[in-house]
Sequence to fold (262 residues):
Amino acid sequence: MPTSPVLPLLGRGLVAGGAAGLTAGLFSLLLAEPLMDRAIRAEERRSAAEEHAQHGAAQAVQHHEELFSRSTQHGGLVVTAVVAGLALGVLVAVAYAAVHRRDPRALPWPRALAFCGAAFLAVSLLPGIRYPANPPGVGDAGTVGDRQALWLASVAIGVLGMFLVRQVYVRLVARPEPVRHIATALTAVAVLLALFLLPGNPDPVPVEASLLWEFRMLSLASHALLWAVFAAVFGALGVRAAARSAVEVTAPAPSPAGQRVA
Fold:
């Protein structure tokens, strides 16, 4: 029975994760960072106006220097994306190994696409629907912990929901297709309901509507690009590994020393 060792999968995951993180980081740097700069300037103007209104026109508004310059932050964005991609590659490789062990006969390319598509839905799309990304500086600093906890809860619901949907689909394989499809769809609806039972964003988003929409769409696009590149690289490496294994299996055994081959 064909197997897929964990160490080669980890290597494929690291290569795919690094490539995906670098691609998503460069995408965000070129397209999302200009929007972030606009959002930061808008937030600074809003904060200055509030401080001016609170303390009166006679008091000058104090400007605080940034700990890191924007150019340093831009470089850090790409580095962080690559590191996050590498960590993602390890997690996906371990999960992929567990799935592969149960069904080792599946082809690597379609499995990689299906696996990463489900991961995008569970980790990026569903949490992004419930808690869309906001530009930096938006929200009260005192609610950061609450917002992070809500986002992690949405990710947990998305991951467990995708697992539950797959289990329903697999366990009803002997049932007629209408029953199987309807049960799977109802399970997905239940996951969405559970997701929207979570509390909403506790803070207002005082950002221009067009800028907010563009930022959220670009954020979602960067996630989609991350998973697409990961799936393509991981799947391609899997196809190459499968081809090498097939060549090794079909290669003729070497002749014993001293035996003459006709």
